[in-house]
């Protein structure tokens, strides 16, 4: 039975992205049936407000881009966390808002891929894999100065604290991303994802679960849950949103394979710089276990991923294109993300 005392209205100024985000965010703890019943007459205004936000983000408005990604991130929390009370998960209105945000995010990433990128894509598995790796090695993000120079040689304790917060939306829930993307897979791909997931689960040892180890870093820096969202830039939010977006939809499985594969392939080299910085600063050893572990584990995971997940999927042209597309989303978005971090760090020094 619907709660007749609960009233949901859309009263935000459609020209104010922050008002729109704040109001829609309050709906996330409203039962889905109530939300849809109460907002039916306001649907067009809600859609218009989100479309306006997306349009401004596409035109380069940084405030609109932040609002867009913040709202999508908050909505994704309804899918990535168990509710403590009522939830709008399953709402038709909320689904429409989500799809508008997702479609705009997809279009923005696709617009950054030159049309000729796929023209030289090989049609056979091993040549395709070599082409994919070569594309990554040639990308400016592969040895980005944020890691190679700044983190390695110059980062302070405060810089590493900021770094951990910015990485939390991917590293802090990688196990859930793997669990989501494996649905519907079979054979060696499913086994490889399962092996990866079991490693994330500490091979059965609760004290070695990777998300538990990652949270130990929060303890070193005294990072609170409330601080996490408040400290996120739009590109921080985008990194986490892209990962969830690709892993939650079966028709984007190829893109998820490319996105997570590139994430793991880039990790060992990046984390070596983080470990050097941690040791240089003499920070508590308990906080660097996660990064030390992933230098070795992700080297193995990346090799297994390319052989057991990418190669079997590359027999399909559509899948080859999807894997390359997801890889480029990761490379391009990471490049912009690290450019922003480096500029911000340089401005502070």
Automatic annotation (TrEMBL):
Which InterPro entries does this chain map to?
A: Haem_Oase-like_multi-hlx, PqqC-like
Q: Does the keyword Oxidoreductase apply?
A: yes
Keyword Cytoplasm assigned: no
Record key words, sorted: Oxidoreductase
Q: Which Gene3D superfamilies is this protein grouped with?
A: Heme oxygenase-like
In Pfam terms, one family for this protein is Haem_oxygenas_2
Query: How is this protein named in the record?
Result: Iron-containing redox enzyme family protein
């Amino acid at each position: 039975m619907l709660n007749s005392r609960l009233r949901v209205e859309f009263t935000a100024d459609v020209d104010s992205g922050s008002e729109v985000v704040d109001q829609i965010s309050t709906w996330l703890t409203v039962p889905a049936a109530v939300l849809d019943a109460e907002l039916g007459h306001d649907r067009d205004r809600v859609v218009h407000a989100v479309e306006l936000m997306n349009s401004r983000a596409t035109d380069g408005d940084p405030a609109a881009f932040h609002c867009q990604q913040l709202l999508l991130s908050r909505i994704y929390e309804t899918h990535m966390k168990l509710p403590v009370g009522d939830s709008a998960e399953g709402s038709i209105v909320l689904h429409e808002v989500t799809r508008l945000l997702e479609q705009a995010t997809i279009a923005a990433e696709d617009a950054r891929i030159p049309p000729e990128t796929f023209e030289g894509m090989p049609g056979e598995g091993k040549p395709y894999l070599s082409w994919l790796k070569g594309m990554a090695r040639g990308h400016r993000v592969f040895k980005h100065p944020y890691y190679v120079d700044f983190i390695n040689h110059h980062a302070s304790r405060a810089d590493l604290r900021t770094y951990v917060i910015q990485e939390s939306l991917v590293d802090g829930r990688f196990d859930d991303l793997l669990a989501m993307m494996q649905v519907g897979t079979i054979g060696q791909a499913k086994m490889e994802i399962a092996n990866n997931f079991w490693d994330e689960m500490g091979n059965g040892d609760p004290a070695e679960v990777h998300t538990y180890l990652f949270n130990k870093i929060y303890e070193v820096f005294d990072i609170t849950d409330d601080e996490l969202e408040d400290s996120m830039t739009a590109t921080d939010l985008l990194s986490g949103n892209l990962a969830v977006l690709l892993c939650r939809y079966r028709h984007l499985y190829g893109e998820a394979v490319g996105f997570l594969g590139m994430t793991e392939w880039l990790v060992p080299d990046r984390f070596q710089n983080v470990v050097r910085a941690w040791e240089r600063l003499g920070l508590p050893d308990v906080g660097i276990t996660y990064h030390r572990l992933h230098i070795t584990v992700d080297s193995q995971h990346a090799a297994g991923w390319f052989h057991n997940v990418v190669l079997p999927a590359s027999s399909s042209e559509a899948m080859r294109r999807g894997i390359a597309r997801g890889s480029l989303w990761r490379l391009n978005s990471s490049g912009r993300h690290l450019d922003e971090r480096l500029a911000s760090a340089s401005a502070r020094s």
